[in-house]
Amino acid sequence: MAEAMIPTVSQVSGWQLDTLDTQASTWKQQAATLKTEVDGFYTAVGNSADYLVGKFGNGMRDKGLTVRDQGYQTVGSLEAASTAITIGSPGMRFAQQTVKQTLTTLTAEGYLWGEDGTVTLSLSQTANALSDKDKDSATVKLAALQHQADQ
Known about the structure:
Helices cover 75% and strands 3% of the residues. By secondary structure, it is mainly alpha-helical. α2 (17-46) packs antiparallel against α3 (54-108) and α4 packs antiparallel against α5 (135-150).
């Protein structure tokens, strides 16, 4: 089984979800149009029994059935993809918004962040905490900053 790929912070921040939603809508419309066209084609082929007869007519109608079935498979795939995007989009928007808000907060507080989502103390935070003349207080400040980064 393939290992799940976890997107990086930059990838999540860069998701173009409006474009993805537009694609889902386009696929849904294309599925409806294709289904109408496939149905029309199949009806026309089916109505040929009066003037296309024999092996040729039967072979053409059999091929028409195959084309219709394959067309319906494509319609089903387009509809499934559109539905998957439509269902998944709100969760992806929430994830993206959460990542962006978290990055804004982290950056404002002076933390550094990694592409894998890790948060570390910046040199200025470390220097500021260690500048306290009371070593115990400096240690507590540093531990509190590290705890916050870990959270």
